[in-house]
Amino acid sequence: MLVVFGLGNPGSKYEGTRHNAGVETLERLAASYHARLVRRCLSSYRTCVVESARGERVRLVFPLTYMNDSGRVVPRLVSGGDRVLVICDQMDLPAGRLRLRAGGTSSAGHNGLKSMMQALPDGFERLYIGVGRPGDGVSVIDHVLSRPDEEDRRLIDAAEAEAAEGLRLLIEGEDFQKVVQRLNSFRGR
């Protein structure tokens, strides 16, 4: 089974922040299948299962553990043989750019990725949503936990929509390298 994690922070305080680009993309993907992420009982995640036109099931997961502890939910949701893809924000990409990778060995200082890497030592696919670097005098934490200005929001929204469409194509059986080419060449609208 493919398990797709969208990283972010729970709660209205963090809605629309740069750090929530991963979960915003995941929610768009769920909506494209007329599904929505739900929390069951007292679980520490919201999830749903969508099904491709070919009948393959895909689990979508938003950890409710806050970004730095995202990997904590992995043992409950991933079993041997599952393929994992993680969607998250990336400051090293300009706002609105995308980067899909088959794997990676670095967290690039991203604490959510660090947590996922500890939980998934064999690796996972990654989809980065560019949120840009902080301006002069703005700390990294303040940057990722803030809401982008109007232009960056427009670029990030377009990237999230394109990323969700690319993931939908992947779920529907499109070749991984074709989706990589499509998403990595995306320049925004």
What does this molecule look like?
The protein is α/β, with parallel strands linked by helices. 32% of the residues lie in helices and 20% in strands. The chain has six helices and six strands; from the N terminus they run βαββαββαβααα. The chain has helices spanning 21-32, 74-77, 111-119, 140-144, 150-171, 176-184, and strands at 2-6, 45-51, 57-63, 83-90, 98-101, 125-130. The protein has a six-stranded mixed sheet with strand order 2-3-1-4-6-5, with helices on both faces. A hairpin with a 5-residue loop joins strand 2 (45-51) and strand 3 (57-63). The longest helix is centred in the last third of the chain and has 22 residues, at 150-171. The N and C termini lie far apart (33 Å). The relative contact order is 0.20. The mean pLDDT is 96.
Shape: globular
Overall pLDDT score: 96
Biggest β-sheet, characterized?
Answer: 6 strands, mixed
Order of helices and strands: EHEEHEEHEHHH
Q: End-to-end distance, in Å?
A: 33 Å
The Rg value, from CA coordinates, equals 15 Å
Query: What share of the residues lie within helices?
Result: 25-40%
What percent of residues are in strands? 15-25%
Structural class: alpha/beta
Low-confidence stretches: none
Which strands sit side by side, in order, in the main sheet? Answer: 2-3-1-4-6-5
| Number of helices in the DSSP assignment | 6
Number of strands: 6
